[in-house]
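Query structure, 135 tokens:
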């Protein structure tokens, strides 16, 4: 179950059975045919009073700056009062995504990066801090 974003006034548990209280406070992600389709598009916002663009990006694990900026443009397209219409904001989002594609091509054309350090050092390999301290 996923809890609703706003708490509704609920009678005390002495007035209602606990199952009914829980049912009133939470949204069950079921349809008559079974589990909700595309449940990965739904994120819990229980406990949050407001959700802004940056919280949405965080909830959906958007970490790429180009994609994040494009999403931000689309979420408020034409609604920021900056004199831009929806078309202008959509074009700016497209520009961000085009830059993302360019960066992917740039990354693919570069020499492969050095491999990541292993999580554990091989036996007898000193810790980086001891190398620095010992010169």
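Result returned for the query:
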């Amino acid at each position: 179950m996923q809890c609703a974003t706003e708490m509704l006034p609920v009678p005390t548990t002495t007035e209602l059975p606990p199952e009914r209280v829980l049912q009133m406070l939470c949204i069950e992600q079921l349809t008559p045919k079974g589990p909700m389709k595309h449940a990965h598009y739904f994120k819990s916002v229980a406990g949050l009073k407001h959700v802004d663009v940056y919280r949405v990006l965080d909830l959906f694990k958007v970490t790429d700056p180009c994609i994040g900026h494009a999403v931000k443009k689309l979420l408020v397209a034409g609604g920021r009062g900056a004199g831009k219409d929806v078309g202008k904001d959509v074009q700016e989002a497209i520009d961000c995504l085009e830059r993302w594609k360019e960066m992917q091509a740039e990354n693919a054309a570069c020499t492969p990066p050095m491999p990541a350090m292993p999580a554990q050092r091989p036996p007898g390999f000193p810790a980086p801090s001891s190398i620095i301290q010992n010169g």
